[in-house]
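Reopening: D-aminopeptidase still failing for me.
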Amino acid sequence: MPATSPPTRPRLRDLGIAVGTLPTGSLNAITDVPGVRVGHQTIVRGDGPLIVGDGPVRTGVTAIHPHEGSAFAAAVPAAIGVLNGAGEITGRSQVDEMGVLESPILLTNTFSVGEVHRGCVEWLSAREPGLGTHSFVIPVVAETFDGTLNDIAGQHVRRQHAVAALEGATGGPVAEGNVGGGTGMILFGFKGGIGTASRLVTVGGVTSTVGVLIQGNFGDANDLLVEGVPVGRELTADASDLDTIRRGRRAEGDTTGDGSVIVVIGTDLPLSDRQLGRLCRRGMLGLGRTGATGRNYSGDLLLAFSNHLANRVEVANRAPILTSVRLHDRELNIVFQAVIEATAEAVLNALLAADTMTGRDGITARALPADRLAEVMGRYGRLGSAG
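Support: Ran it again with your exact input. Result attached.
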């Protein structure tokens, strides 16, 4: 499924609800950051009782290219942050050590990390001279668990799906909800998945972009917040909505709300890996703004990168001394705000974009009722024109 598939449900701002005060980019998506491309491969097949290896299948893979070219040929400054570590993101030790990202970023389900990693290695090896003989790469692949709806043990994501997501990645509007790596995910007791948002910031007279994409699979329904409004508690206070929430739990009888989220933060601002680590920590505040608490079995992993042209590390550059530029730390406050706002809105866009889905054994994750959300926000005086 391409990144440009049209949405079928409203986004948050379509309901007149805005997060924060900063302006969004034209798409309100991570692809507002110049050069960033997103691709999805969505796998939906079968219904009925679970037969491991056969289905039902509700899964996929999402690929993010950090700029318009090859991340291996031109690595970018990056950092990874962990709120709660019951999850996996490959390549973390190298990103921590070197402070750069030299591969695309791929998102999938927990049991498919290996196959997606293999697909990325094969894709890169076919395109980068000397890779595997004179140089190496450690792809960045992150996961969340979709086994409530999907035959996850069947490992239906194959390396060719990863290759197709990488090949099909484009700029422009980004499909959200039940797509790519987010296909089988559940968020705050409702159907979840992929969500994205962006913010524009002006520093020193220059306007730049901060974009966020999340794969959301976490949260208890009662914890859900929308701009401070206890939407989750309002919905569960109604008996019919409570039944909907219960049927959308991550597992039968599970009321913990444990789960995971991957947050990818991209920007064209000139930032160092140290500063990008600070953005990861602000992304955690954005998650908290929606009611996330980083529960015991939650894998809350964040990656931030800057694709500013002057800071890319060219693999062919053999100069002994490299130069780079970075924003002065005193200018970061507005960037922190942008990350917090865009992360929170990306989570809420993932909720609103996702359609009701029935997976294995007839388990159903219900879509967040947009009309009820608007009604609750209006009752709290928080509904208006978001622009």
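The chain has eight helices and 15 strands. If you still see a failure, please send the error message rather than a screenshot.
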